[in-house]
User: Which sequence fits this backbone?
């Protein structure tokens, strides 16, 4: 039997996160007055210890023992060679995947939910609010809050709340309180319901509700939490890439190509950032964040200042954005239907350290099904986008007769997304095309905001 999985012993789990802000310069987030946001302006929304991480430029940040205790329920996560998939593709490329589908909620998201719950706890916070679209983030945060005895309130977009009852049941099992958004509990929710009592809801409204519920709690014991995009989220996810580096040493190998699907950018960044550091130091690596053609933030949208949410409550962030009112086609990869991209990932795209790619929904499911039939694990719809890019690279390696080493982030399993597979297998899914005119229209709003500077860090 060939060694397929490289499993780190428990005591080899990384003890520090890698903070890319030590190695790149960024445009600052801006407030409503167009001036940089100061950390204390964020204090009603996030606990100060997380705000400090958000703005820190320390290269290495210690992972607290109490966080490692919980992460070690499923970490270190295996780095596995996809030999059966390679064989099916007839490629000389070596394909490795970092399996983030082994966590209790089934994705990479608890890598940040756990430290976020911990830092809230030690700051004296009792309750966390958040929003969730398809339910992956809400379930990760419910799990994490249960570990530290915090209450968790999740505003779940109405349409998913109705369509995905099992995600809700997961949250409830972990003690989370999941309510449909818009709700009558907040002003933002009541206004949305007044406008349209039958609204399917949106992530934008749900964010507004969750922020309002946190800031509005006068006891001072409630804060809000976000599952992607922000610097501290990317920081927490770097445990993925730091483990992978050690595992490549065990395997006696090193990647030529690194791939991850990117919605807000966090699982991609988690795998890629520790290798970006090597690339800055001269390693010849190709690094590809992959987005859906239906929501082409990095490949077709401008780098601009925009709000992170639809309601415009958040500071202006420097990022690739389709405009905060952009509504992507209803592709099943719900986690990739975000109008913006993490500022850190966006900045690295600008600097040419990352090369963004896009794939269509049909190619993604085709790759996902081939994956399931060879490697066994059924990938999350989001993850299939990364796999589709892996297929392209593996075919290219075959044409060129090159033995490339490819690694990708297997961001989660798809066992709660079988409805989407059912539709694909019944021939009911299709690709969507997005016209230039639509992008021009949705990005019109960005002209109202300041233009970020072109910064070259190196
Ligand atoms: C949420 C999610 C994503 C997208 O979020 P990122 O922040 O871009 O990683 C991708 N894959 C899975 C399985 C997810 O749950």
Assistant:
């Amino acid at each position: 039997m060939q060694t397929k999985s490289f499993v780190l012993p428990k005591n080899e789990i990384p003890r520090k996160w890698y903070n890319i802000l030590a190695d790149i310069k960024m445009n600052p987030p801006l407030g409503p007055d167009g001036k940089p946001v100061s950390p204390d302006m964020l204090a009603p929304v996030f606990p100060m210890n997380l705000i400090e991480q958000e703005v820190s430029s320390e290269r290495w940040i210690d992972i607290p023992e109490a966080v490692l205790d919980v992460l070690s329920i499923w970490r270190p996560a295996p780095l596995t060679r996809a030999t059966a998939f390679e064989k099916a593709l007839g490629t000389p490329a070596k394909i490795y995947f970092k399996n983030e589908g082994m966590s209790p909620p089934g994705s990479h998201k608890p890598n940040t939910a756990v430290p976020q719950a911990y830092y809230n706890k030690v700051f004296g916070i009792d309750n966390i609010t958040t929003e969730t679209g398809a339910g992956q983030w809400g379930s990760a945060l419910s799990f994490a809050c249960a570990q530290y005895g915090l209450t968790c309130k999740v505003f779940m977009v109405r349409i998913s709340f109705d369509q995905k009852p099992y995600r809700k049941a997961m949250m409830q099992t972990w003690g989370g309180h999941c309510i449909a958004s818009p709700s009558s509990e907040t002003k933002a929710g009541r206004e949305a319901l007044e406008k349209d009592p039958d609204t399917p809801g949106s992530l934008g409204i749900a964010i507004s509700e969750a922020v309002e519920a946190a800031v509005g709690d006068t006891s001072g014991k409630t804060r809000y939490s976000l599952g992607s995009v922000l610097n501290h989220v990317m920081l927490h996810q770097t445990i993925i890439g730091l483990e992978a580096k050690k595992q490549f040493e065990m395997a006696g190998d090193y990647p030529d190509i690194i791939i991850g699907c990117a919605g807000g950018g966090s699982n991609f960044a988690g795998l890629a950032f520790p290798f970006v550091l090597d690339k800055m130091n001269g390693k010849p690596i190709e690094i590809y964040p992959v987005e859906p053609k239906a929501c082409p933030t990095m490949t077709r949208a401008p780098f601009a200042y925009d709000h992170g949410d639809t309601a415009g409550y958040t500071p202006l962030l420097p990022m690739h954005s389709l405009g905060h009112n952009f509504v992507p086609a209803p592709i099943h990869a719900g986690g990739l239907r975000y109008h913006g991209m993490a500022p850190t990932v966006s900045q690295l795209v600008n600097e040419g350290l990352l090369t963004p790619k896009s794939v269509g929904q049909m190619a993604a499911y085709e790759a996902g099904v081939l994956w399931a039939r060879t490697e066994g694990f059924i990938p999350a719809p989001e993850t299939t986008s990364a796999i589709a890019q892996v297929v392209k690279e593996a075919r290219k390696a075959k044409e060129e007769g090159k033995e490339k080493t490819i690694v990708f982030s297997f961001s989660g399993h798809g066992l709660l997304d079988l409805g989407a597979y059912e539709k694909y297998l019944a021939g009911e899914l299709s690709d969507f095309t997005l016209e230039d005119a639509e992008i021009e229209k949705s990005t019109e709003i960005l002209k109202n905001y300041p233009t970020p500077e072109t910064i070259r860090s190196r």
